Structure formats: C-alpha cells, structure tokens
Amino acid sequence: MLLTHILPLLPFALAAPTKSELTVSQWTAIQSGFEKLTDWSFSTAQDVVHELSEIGTNGNEELTIWQQLKADPHSFSRLTKLIEFEGKAIKYLDDKDLQITFFAPNNDALEPPHDHHHHNHDHHDLWVANLIENPSLTTLSSLLDAEPNLTGDDDDDEDKQRRKEVFRYIAGKVLQYHGLPKAYTAKELAENVTFATALKADDGSYGGLHRRIRIDKQLIPPALKINFYAKVLTSDGKARNGIVHTLDHPLLPPPSIFTTAYLFPDFYSTATTAIQGTHGRHYLDWQYTSNFSHPPKKDGSDFKGTGLATFFLPDNKAFLELPLKLKFFLFSPFGENALKKVLAYHYLPNTLLLSEFLYVAKEKKESWDLVDEIAQMEEFKSTEDNGFHKEIIIAPALPNSTLKIEIDKTKVFPIDGAVKTTIKVNGQYVTVIDVPAANGAFHVISKILVPPHKHHDHHGVDISSMDSWTNWEQWLPAWAAEA
Length: 483
Description:
Layout: H1 10-13, H2 24-28, H3 42-54, H4 65-70, H5 73-86, H6 89-93, E1 100-105, H7 124-133, H8 137-146, H9 158-176, E2 179-180, H10 186-190, E3 194-200, E4 210-218, E5 223-226, E6 230-239, E7 242-247, H11 257-262, H12 265-277, E8 286-288, E9 303-305, E10 309-314, H13 316-320, H14 324-330, H15 336-344, E11 347-349, E12 351-354, E13 357-361, E14 365-367, E15 370-372, E16 375-379, E17 388-394, E18 403-411, E19 419-425, E20 428-429, E21 432-437, E22 440-445, H16 476-481
Parallel strand pairs: 1-7, 10-22
Antiparallel strand pairs: 1-2, 3-4, 4-5, 5-6, 6-7, 8-9, 10-11, 12-13, 13-16, 14-15, 17-18, 18-19, 19-20, 21-22
Helix pairs in contact: 5-8, 5-9
C-alpha cells in the first residue's frame, strides 16, 4: 500500500508549498518595510510602531503556553487537538522552566477548504496522498476530523498504527517550525528579519542548522507577517514560559531554492529556464531519490542536489534589461557556457548568507585517521544604536572570483524600535532579502551581475571596470571561452 512507503517521502513532502501561501501580489510588496515612513510625520510613525508592539496584547502570565491554549477552545480547539495527537510538543509548551515563542494558528486558520469535505474519508490512501501534497496543520486537522478514532491507542490494526506514526511525525515537524527557542515580543520580532526555529534540519540539508522563519513588517495597518503569508493577528500573549502570537495561517517549512523560484513564473521563469537549460538545477534543488525501502538517512545520501546554498536570483526584469542580441546569444547553444558561468557568479555553494547570519560549511579535510569539518558561523548583531554595517568578500561558484556583500541595518530615528535592513551585492541593492528555502536562502536582484573578466584596449590598458552588458560583444565571448 501507499501508506507503507510514505515515511521516506516526508522530507520532500515537508518542502511542498501549501495552497494557502502567499499570493503573487504579496511578493511585489515585499521589502517595502519602513521606506514609507518618508510619507509621514515622525509622530505618526511613532504611534504606529507603538501600536505594533501592543497588537492584541493578552495572556495570563500564571499559565503556561499550553494551559493558555487549552483555556481558549473558541480560538484554539483545533490546534490543541493536533498537539494532543502529536503528543511530544506538550512537554515544551507546558514546561514552566522555559522561555519560548510559539506561533499559534487559530481555528479559522485551520479550517479546511470546502473541497476537503467532499473527499471520501474512508479511502485512507487518498488522505495520505493529500498529506504528501499539502503536509500542513490544516490538512492534519481535517484528517483528525474525518477519522476521530485515530486519536485512540486501543487499535491493534498494524496499518492504522503505521498511519498514526506517519501523521504524528509530520505534525511534530511542522509544530517545531512554529516555535522559537527564546521568548520574543512583537517589537523584538520586528527588529530582526530572520529567526531560528525549533525545527532542526536532519536530512543532510541546511548545514544541520535550525530552519529559520522570515519576519516582514507592515506599517499600514501595523502588522507582522511570517514567511510573507502568515499574518500575526494578536501578539504578545504573555505566559509563564514565554509568549504566544496568533496567526491567520499555519506555517510550513519552505521548499528548495529552485522549487520556490519555479512556483512564481511571472517573476522568475527566465531564471529557472536558464538554470534548467544549463543543467544547473541540482545546484539549487534538494530532492528525495530513495527507493522507499527505508527512512531517509540523516547524511543526505537519499537526496540529490545541494543541501546548502545561497543564490542571488535575477528576476524577469533583470533579463529584460539585457540587450536583445545578448539574450538570444545566452539562450542559444553558442551561449550556453557563458550563461552557465554567469549563473555560477550568482551562486554561493555550501553557504547560508542572510542579512543577520552567515554560515559557511567547509569541506571535510582528512588528516591521518581523523576527519575534521570546520565551519564558519557568525551572527551580525546590532550595536547600542540598534544598527550595524557589515562588509563581506565571499567566493561564489565561479572560480577565481569574489562578490562584495554590504549589509546595513539602521535605526529610523527617532522612532523607537523602527529599523531598516538592506543588502547590496557588488554595489547593487537586493530587492527582496532573506527568502527562506529548505536548502538555504535566496535574495532577489533586478540586474544581472557582471562577472569579473579581462579586457584591455588597444594600448594594453585594463578597461574591464568600465564594461557593462551594453558592450558585451567586446569581452563576453572571450571570457566564456576561458578555461
């Protein structure tokens, strides 16, 4: 049966997008952030930031997070039913000695779409297939509604017990992605872009780090969004062991860099076509390939692709700005090598580069009988004025080349708690920063980076610094032909 083979599929399933995620229009508004402050008086902006930190402040500090959720069945009965079914999360949500953050999707967020009610719930394989397609808390909640006897432990049916094991495994992974190991208020969340969750990558990807969520600040009306689509409805529900924030959508660990870009052809179809045309998908993808004979191995040997990468993703506009003749050349058989090298210049292997975090996994070096793996990890922290400037010279996949990364986090004076974070690569502003992926992250750029190359005039003077895509015929073919 399909059920006996589902467990190995779960790492891939957990990377599948949900139907209730962000819309294309939401992506166009990403990173507007605090730039709209110029349209306001500072006093008005100050009020908005204050409101942000006070959105729906509630909670009972005498109760744990778990006790608070149980005490509000009108809002969280679906969520608590899932947590009780999963079993293990209660230990942390009810631990009085911890200080954690939990993002709690309410009952409306977990209400199944109308078409789910028309499924034949007696067809177990149909539920399994649906869960693979959309392994979210919404799907799991619908499953428990359809099969309430799954919550019991008195069944001797081996297949049924197997299904419970699978469903609990999925629920546990997704619930971990809703938690942060420290307690953060809405104001504190708004001051950073990404945060590490309780979900640790255990499939050989992401450097074995804890997977991260992205925070998007919205000023009109004041709000926070997680991963571009889940809005914080009420925040700062203070509990004895941390803080609860209520969401209007459940969170789901994101897919790979390539898959995420592929989901939005209106913005990234030219880039994904270029990647596939140069046989480079495996540099940005992470796919399960086993024969389903055993659970996935933690060393990643059951997967193909790249477990950790950062990509500066040119959007469709970036390709449109290239000279027409150059585009014909790059996407022809004659320009394939040039296109491959250009894309390599945009790609950082074995690297997770975010606006506030850098992790570079080094290759293993054997010394006698010892194998050492050295990794570089650094968090970029704000100074007392709530900002920083960081410059990084880093090597992309293109040999003998470097990228200059400049990250700026600045306080918007005199507004308490208001910050603006930007990234520049080779002097060019990134238009969308810190998009999370299963195998790293990507940053969207609106101009294709000109790679380093050699170009001299007839006097032998190096003029490569003056080159652009406009005069590409003078240097690109020769550069592409270099070994």
